[in-house]
Amino acid sequence: MDKSLLLVDDDVGIIKALSRLLTRSGYTVKTAQSGEEALNALLSFDCKVVLTDFRMPYMDGGQLLSKIKRLYPDIVALVLSGYSDFESVKSLLNAGSAYRFLQKPWEDDELLDEVENAFTHYAKCLFQRQSQKMLLASSDALVEISYPSLISQANIAARKLLGETFVEGRLLDDFWVESDRSRLHGQALSIGQSMSMRLLNHTELEVTCRLAGPSGVVLSFHPVTDGELLNAVFELPSLINYQQLVSLIGQYLNASRPMVLVVIKIRSFELWSRMIGYSEAQRTIERIALQLRNTMGESGQLALLANEQFVLCLPDVASEMNALQKAAAIIDPVTGQADVMLSQLDYAVSYCLIPDDGDDPRTVLNNLLLGNMMIAEDAVRMFMRYDKQAVERKKHQISLNQALFHAVEQGQLFLNFQAKFDVAEYALSGCEALIRWSHPDFGMVSPSLFIPLAEQHGQMVDIGYWVLKTAFITAAKWHSQGVQFGKMAINISGRQLMEPDFIHWIKHHIQLTGVEPTLLEFELTETFLLNNLDDCAITLNAIAELGISIAIDDFGTGYSSLSYLSKLPINVLKIDRSLILDIESNLNTESLVANVVRLAHDLNMKVVVEGIETLDQLNIVKYLGCDVIQGYCISKPQLEEDYLALLTSFESLSATMP
Ligand code: C2E
Ligand code: MG
Ligand code: MG
């Protein structure tokens, strides 16, 4: 962890002495001589610890730390002052705005100890926040352990996999077989590392370290040798288990004998558990197992694995069509049952063919199960053949999702800027800030891929605030340098708007960065707004009152309802690229765009068209009355310095025009 510290004191002598001491001890130190200077420094200095004097003119240490606590709740604050200030500092300590009070004059060694403790405290809190997010968002079985062995949190998936006794306050050690107990201690796992451990019932689990902090780790658990429901209330002798299934697949692969593997995921299980209780729902699963087994006769094998996934193995199929017919003949009678529960059966079926779909039994099975979980997330019921590429993409997505939790803190994000061109004025009228993620292993990751992940898994709010803060600082800087850039548009995800302190955060950061709100535009997508119209109206009005312009992004991909949107304070409509793709050849598209433009203008909105790549497209949309275009035809999204160079070249071009 980068050990960055902000030192605030109005006494230059103290600043010099402390700065020397801390820099020599390996800290990255920035200094400020007043509260205002400190708040300004925090805009661009990503610091973990603040060490501040208490008595300072204009803004004292108390006022400064209250502001820091509200704006940067993660920063750990230390107050360094004379003992006579202790009473005043006490209220800061009680309110959590300060972590420790250090007395002036100080002893170097003691002060260094306290500073180091503050960094450790920061790392512990960071770990807890990340762990909390991971446990809530993940469908994997995750458990947070406080060193050396205390279970401090387990998510729902973990309790489902490991049993209801796997709860906070128990020792992790108690769950392993004797010989494995000390192994997890002896071998401190680093992030991404795995080891295999056996539970008391000898079920083998793969334990992987997903997050590590100074006080604990987050571990994920996956069954390796036996994928059966661990806490199953039933044991059906006629079913095979995971291990037997793997060896059966292995035999067929070795002999190159054809077999179809069909996974049936019972999606109604969660609903049934809520309606009739967990044990009763499991008994319903048991009934399904028996019925499937009966219908199959001697024609194959059946396994029941974790997550209510059945696997049918039907050997010696002549063709894919033959395989599907055989499988349907077994599944249809069960799903068509008159039974009340079964009539509500909701399931997802996928299959793969052996030996065509892989050559390693474990990989074949695991990929098939993962692929089935993927289709189970969509509302698809029909038979789907295992899609190798989709499974590989999913595995990649899972790794990306984990890495995304660290993107902000590891400084992997940056902004690009793309020009918007006013077709009537023939000048650049603004730009859109677009996020970029550069990961050391994955390279550049497209926002179209990671923004939806972040929205789904909880990283969007942190990422969104990073984008806003960086864009505000950039716009304020350009403005102060006299750069005429029109408006800077920033994409806001629906998740950000739902944050209760969103408007408060915006107001404060406008104040802190000194950005002029009329130079900003927020782009929001139509789908989110229409789904949350009443809540959004309040937030959008507050944004508009601040002087920030509002644009509807990706218009034409959702409901495209202008009458709904007329109830909201919207200034700009951005027509999505997909709507104009065939504009050069399709007259219907032309008249559609002309109508949208007319309606938008009636509602006093400007119209921007996105994704204009050719001069022909530009001329057509200009003719149809669009005001502004954005697209590769003018410029691709660029780094800040390249964008500024583009602005300059456009300025000199327009200076030469009559
Ligand atoms: P968007 O807001 O609709 O942004 C426009 C996208 O179209 C950008 O893709 C841009 O590079 C691309 N584009 C612009 N002109 C052309 C063109 O002429 N042809 C083609 N083929 N594409 C063009 P990008 O940068 O990959 O961003 C994709 C989406 O990711 C954005 O769509 C937006 O929804 C989201 N996104 C990007 N940055 C942020 C951000 O900071 N916050 C949030 N919440 N979402 C963001
Ligand atoms: Mg946009
Ligand atoms: Mg768009």
Automatic annotation (TrEMBL):
SMART domains registered for this protein in UniProt: EAL, REC
Transmembrane portions of the chain: none
Keywords of the record: Phosphoprotein
Key word Phosphoprotein present: yes
Domain Response regulatory: 4-119
Alphabetized PROSITE patterns for the sequence: EAL, RESPONSE_REGULATORY
Domain EAL positions: 397-651
Annotated InterPro entries: CheY-like_superfamily, Cyclic-di-GMP_PDE-like, EAL_dom, EAL_sf, GGDEF_dom, Nucleotide_cyclase, Rev_trsase/Diguanyl_cyclase, Sig_transdc_resp-reg_receiver
Domain of life according to the entry: Bacteria
Pfam families noted in UniProt: EAL (PF00563), GGDEF (PF00990), Response_reg (PF00072)
Residue positions, PTM 4-aspartylphosphate: D53
Name of the protein: Response regulator
The species this protein was found in: Shewanella decolorationis S12
